[in-house]
Amino acid sequence: MEKQVVAPLDENKPRRTPNFKWSNILRGDNRALWTILALVIILIVDRMVSPSFFTVRMVNGRLTGSLINTLDGAAPIILLSIGMTLVIATKGVDLSVGAVMAICGAVAAVLINRHEAGSDNILYYPGFVIAIAILAGAACGLWNGILVALFDIQPIIATLILMVAGRGIAQMITDGQSPTFSNETLAFMGQGTIFGMPFPVYVALIALVGVFLLVRRTALGLLIESVGINSKASRYTGVNAASIKLFVYIISGICAAIAGLIVAGENTYADPHTAGMWSELDAIVAVVIGGTLLSGGRFNLVLSVVGTLIIQSLRIGLYISDLHPNANLVVKAIVILLVLLLQSKEFKQAIGRLFKPLLKLRAVFR
């Protein structure tokens, strides 16, 4: 048999980078591009509906405009989607984040009102109140993680328990009321600005950068993906799958707590009944739009944020349009379906087959 000779690799020789081809897009090889393209299209449509959509003005030291409102309104859902991305990457789901928002907002409002009433207890000071509310969110995440990781309960059932009970817990904390507060520190969480930009935008950005560095500059991201792909196999390779699951649910709880503080600060009251209602669904849809599969495995935090911006820009666009309010949810569902179809490899391959004759014709005249 003739022996094959492999040429040695020249380390100094530059490697060729594959050329960009539009045919690759039609075959579905550029998920990120399609997701960003969907956001751009929706923003363009918003601009067509409202010519002043991209207009940004400084009013009383605060940037205002539809675009700023989109970023500001998206901040709580961005926080939820960050935690949800990690949870879904482990082949889980967290349906309780909306209820956790209500719980943590209620905790903060009740404690801060005791401080406003004149209590000298250090635990009622704004900094400690915020920390306690975040710890409450972490405790909720730990509860979910214990049910999923240690008791092996299906994530959708385990988190559904807190989703249902959480509203009741929030109402017990507030005695069924919606307590208002006037504390400037807590209100700043939702209403404050830095250099004109709403404070919640900074919080969401810091959370994104922090979690991104944590999972992409360490081995944690690979461990999360390995647990999502095959939890049993990952255990055989020495990965503590239970600890990874506990960690991601705690992160999800913390993100939900911060989102709850932002919403409470924006409203200057805590509503245990409706705070964060259905926010978990927006977070899940944002993660799926971002390309993270519900079956677990590979995830992309940045694209999850893009998915959130798609949802929020769509919501703002429907709000400023003359469309009947009852049709908003239907239109929103249709647009989200179209975005998901654009990300479907099979759908894009079908589109590619339709355009294949045009690509061949282009090659003939080249």
Report what the structure shows.
This protein has one domain. The protein has 366 residues and is an all-alpha fold. The strands form two sheets. Strands 1-2 form a two-stranded antiparallel sheet. It has a two-stranded antiparallel ribbon with strand order 3-4. Helices cover 68% and strands 3% of the residues. Helix 3 crosses helix 12, helix 4 packs across helix 11 and helix 5 runs antiparallel to helix 11. The chain contains 15 helices and four strands.
State the main characteristics.
366 residues; two-stranded antiparallel ribbon; globular; mainly alpha
Instruction: Give the DSSP E fraction (strand runs of 2 or more residues).
Output: under 5%
Pick out the low-confidence regions. 4-29
Structural class: mainly alpha
Specify Rg, calculated over alpha carbons: 24 Å
Number of helices: 15
